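Purpose: get a first structural picture of the assembly so the mutagenesis plan has something to point at.
Setup: two entries, given in the order below. No constraints added.
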Amino acid sequence: MRDVAVIGYARAPYRRSAGDLNEVELLLPVLSAALADAGLNRQQIDFVCSGSCDYLAGSAFSFVAAVDALGATPSLPESHVEMDAAWALYEAWLKFQSGEIDTALIYGFGKSSPGALPEVLSQQLDPYYLAPLWPDSISLAALQADALLASGRYSERDFAEVVADSRRAAMTTSGAQLSGLFSVDQLMAEPVFASPLRRHDCCPISDGASALVLASREKAEAIGASTAWITGLDHRMELHQLGLRDLTASPSSAAAAEKAGADRARLDVAELYAPFSPQQLILRDALGLGDGTVINPSGGVLAGHVMMAAGLDRVGEVAQRIRRGEYRRGLAHATSGPCLQHNLIAVLEADHG
Amino acid sequence: MADTFDIEALEPIQVVETPIYLHYHYIAPCTLTPFLRALKNGKLTGALSPATGKVLIPPLGACPESGTATAELLPLQDSGTVLSFTTVHLPIPDSPLKPPFTVANILLDGADQTISHLVTECDPADVVIGMRVRAHWKPREDWDFGLENIHYFVPTDEPVADVDQLRRDCLKRAEQRREGGAQHA
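Result (structure tokens, whole complex):
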């Protein structure tokens, strides 16, 4: 495996609505900031890959318009995934492994505020049997949460604890959308929204953009970059049909973590992409994370959730902490699809293999 | 009952209709808003890219060549030059346009980026690259926030332009604007 490092990261503040900023205007300052963090300019980037979804803002080919933010003159190799940008990172990582590139710029953006995101997401379900029923993402997560309660492993108080932890952690996260000190009792007193979920069990809807810069070992050493090394990366997917899955488990996360070598040494930190609080408990169990691992020091996506950038943000949050020397080894998780259908695991370390 | 479930005897289901309706609340981007407001008043504008000196229409926030934010809006003429065109002979379902009609890439005077619009009031066979055209606006009371305020473009009686020379002139003017901007800064 070729050593690849995160050498730069930036994101826009999480906002419920970016108002009159379009995707290009959201991206421009973020791309510049990520490149500045990496100490590179646009001309030094070998490959650009992005993640976004046109359904969010309802504007066709917005991923093509977003290329305006790149300054693609002279022309540059560029690719796009209609997925979270964590998978754009995966595509770029494969290009590194093929020896084709030494630097890459990854970006993700989402402007969900113009639409009704939970309904928009129902259209990623199978088009014949599920999508025509318009099951929104919150309702499906509630089905999953109810199954988890029925398993007897967790209670609604456990869900509230996840939320209280997130709100507290997010108090030191710049640009967090939701943060503060809340007791579990306080949260439990809130009304039920989609049983058994309360509103605070659901991630907020945020507009924003994020960018991350990768470099090969040769390049990173040549420019003396501050690094967080990607020592493992894998993604696994479960069945599309929810009825065929055990919604209280995440075997695809477990399999991806194993392939990424997550258990080869102690994990100091993990950023989990759990848009609904019960999912964080499912993921923690699937990944076997114990008390020795700090989970979601940023507050996770309950503090801010930009669709199509939130997974890349998990990688960025872990990478920045390792680059600052706060932790030695961490795990970043990204998810896609309903009820944790598709999961990606990246292992990041202060030292390369 | 048994023959109700005789799959072989039934017609196959070939079509399932699952219509999608999603509603979006659109807010015009801040760089596009003054352009749309000017259009509502029958004025064409383009965004100046400080990095290249080029004037872009419509203004979408960034100069795609340099990846930098665009600056102020400059006024554009409602006359221009056809840089390429196609004449459509096939009817398009639900379109108010009746074939044959001509769609052209038109470089407005003062702009460095073409817009697409209809060229009409002439025989499609007479449209040529370099043809000079002028906007034919809809009645003022029909003006809204869109380029549809221009009903179509019509040929003028000016001679056909040399588009290679036009491109060179555009680049020269952009360079002058870029240098002028750089001196200001």
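The CA atoms of residues 88 and 100 of chain B lie 5 Å apart.
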